[in-house]
């Protein structure tokens, strides 16, 4: 039995029942889930994913709406540029691929905002192809089970892709199952701070477990602070704009945060990122909202 075999056998009886893993889920649904799951927990993503797929079941449906609607629908998932990237992806797929999510990896990687991880994840999980799909969870599993180290590096490298590919079975369908199994194992068993080694299918084969070493003291990565940061201010500003039915005057945005310098910096950042558009000197809308008919025009 290989690590892949053990992981697949474990996955078949222990995997979480997530909607984007259902056989009926489209490649578009897989892509949406992968973008949403970046830096956002599953428990918050699942209801947002269901709402998104109900409103925009195909790329063409999303592309037909302005990007402002994607930002609104994104709600409070965080990192709202992901909503802009999904909208840009949808537009590109309509223009280049007749509204379909391409199955070719190079074509996936050419889509706006689709990087090494997301492209391989969609090709693997939606189309059953053989690619190394490497996120933080997978890197941690491989680091421990194969290399005997308690944790992996801070970012995915070419060496990580090679290491994971070497663990994949040659058959495409089986390799795809192994990829999702490795990821699930890292998410719910081989976790960063509280690994459940006695429940792990790699218990007897894991190089790190064999050392008997404990995890290093303290968090493996410094937690990101949110309160009082520009990210919090950006979120407050976007919350006002998301619920507005027309242009929002600067004075209305001024009340969300008392620090004028930080508020201005956060607003300028939203404009620079393309999430917000100024109308004149003192009015603002979400991206694309300046093309939407206002209530008095209907």
TrEMBL record:
Catalysis: reaction(s): Hydrolyzes free adenine bases from 7,8-dihydro-8-oxoguanine:adenine mismatched double-stranded DNA, leaving an apurinic site
- Asked if the record carries the keyword RNA-binding, the reply is no
Question: Could you state a single Gene Ontology molecular function term?
Answer: adenine/guanine mispair binding
Question: Which top-level enzyme class is recorded in the Swiss-Prot or TrEMBL entry?
Answer: hydrolase
Q: Which EC number(s) does UniProt give?
A: 3.2.2.31
- Domain named HhH-GPD: which ranges? 36-188
Protein name per the record: Adenine DNA glycosylase
Which InterPro entries has this protein been placed in? DNA_glycosylase, Endonuclease-III-like_CS2, HhH-GPD_domain, HhH_base_excis_C, HhH_motif, MIG/MutY
